[in-house]
User: Fold this.
Amino acid sequence: MPFFGNTFSPKKTPPRKSVSLSNLHTLDRSTREIELGLEYGAPVMNIGGQSLKFEEGQWILSETTAESHLMEKELEEVKNHSRRKK
Assistant:
């Protein structure tokens, strides 16, 4: 029975090799786009009924907000109404 230290010292396990589960890195860009339909556009987010689009390093208020759709519909109705009067 040892007084100093522990006699039980297991060997360290060797580090595991990291293996990718995906083979996407082996495909070239054009093949990935064709096979998987990977088409990346500008990031878009909707907050409080407004749509923001990230372009050229800035968040820009997008034209496709719900409010602008309502305004477009109202404008079309006014145009149609004025055409009917003619």
Summary: The first strand starts at residue 44 and ends at 47. The longest helix spans residues 66-85. The beta strands are 44-47, 50-55, 58-61. The helical segments are 29-36, 66-85.
